[in-house]
Design brief:
Helix content: 25-40%
Shape: globular
Number of strands: 9
Largest sheet: 7 strands, mixed
CATH class: Alpha Beta
Number of domains: 1
Structural class: alpha/beta
Length: 313
């Protein structure tokens, strides 16, 4: 009798665990990749500071070591793009590396691991950085409607990568792309009113009006912006925004008096803090997945892992 019970127990175990692998998995597997987009606003920036290129190079290096991972990772699909926000006025090309464009795995791994007889990842990275330097060597006196341009690129530029699904008989694998949009800007959103919408213009007059309102009504800048539409930038809502982590990297200390070495306004009412809040509220109301605003005016002092810690996944 004992032998019969033992045999039945073994049979049940074989049935349960033997069939387990034939049951479709209700929890889909997820494989994550990164899609990095870098746009630099060079409008009206005549004296280029080194902070931009130092940080951009760190982003590019992170793309290699933190995303593609040569010699470690197999079949990566990450991508990186660099462009001037006003690329139509540039004589330099746009830089792009898309590991996902390789359909042949062997060719992809040879490229990534720098073993191809043709162009390798190392060559592509060098070319990428040269294009960045080319753009920063140019002069650009014109302003541009930066927010409208961001909206256009996110929604019509075909650069946002959406989830893909690999479906088999037993389960579904999701290929999820973390879209990281880096914007390098010098703060004020200024341009000729014939070149863009006044809804997206934010310069010294708007900041001063907000500052005066805060002092008169004894409210914080954030409270004033949230509750008074005249101090906001009109949100640009889209479904694609939900897929984008937006990083605004501020390259200038607005309101800084170079001769005196001091800020005209400090603390909550400083130009940069007001601009940070304007961007923050705009990004939230526009529906971006994640938002960061960071000053990089002292990029020479940034730690080597600055971008690695900043990236949101």
């Amino acid at each position: 009798m004992r032998e019969l019970r033992t045999a039945l127990s073994i049979a049940i175990l074989i049935f349960v665990y033997g069939c387990k692998f034939d049951i479709p998995n209700d929890e889909p597997d997820i494989i994550e990749y990164d899609n990095i987009m870098i746009y630099t606003d060079l409008s009206s920036r005549m004296n280029k500071k080194p902070s931009d290129t130092l940080v951009i190079n760190q982003i590019v290096d992170f793309f290699v070591s933190g995303c593609v991972k040569p010699g470690i990772k197999v079949n990566d699909r990450s991508a990186i793009l660099f462009s001037r926000a006003n690329y139509q006025r540039s004589n330099c090309p746009t830089a792009k590396i898309d590991i996902g464009q390789f359909k042949n795995l062997e060719e992809k791994q040879k490229f990534v691991n720098n073993k191809s007889h043709n162009k390798n990842l190392k060559d592509a990275i060098s070319e990428f950085k040269n294009i960045v330097r080319c753009n920063y060597a140019e002069r650009d006196k014109g302003g541009l409607d930066l927010l409208s341009l961001i909206y256009q690129e996110v929604n019509t530029g075909n650069h946002i990568k959406k989830p893909e699904y690999l479906i088999s008989e037993t389960d579904t694998t999701t290929l999820y792309f973390h879209n990281h949009l880096f914007i390098f800007t010098d703060g004020y959103l200024e341009f000729s009113t014939t070149a863009g919408s006044k809804d997206f213009y934010y310069g010294e007059p708007q900041i001063e009006a907000l500052r005066k309102f805060c002092r008169t009504n004894k409210v914080s800048p954030e409270e004033a912006i949230r509750n008074n539409p005249q101090f906001k930038i009109r949100p640009l809502v889209s479904e694609n925004n939900k897929l984008v982590n937006l990083y605004i990297l501020e390259t200038d200390d607005r309101g800084f008096n170079v001769q005196k070495g001091t800020l005209k306004n400090t603390g909550d009412l400083s130009d940069n803090n007001i601009l940070r809040l304007v961007w923050k509220i705009w990004a939230k109301e526009s529906g971006f997945r994640h938002f960061e605003w960071r000053p990089i005016t002292t990029a020479t002092n940034l730690p080597n892992d600055y971008i690695q810690k900043l990236i949101k996944r």
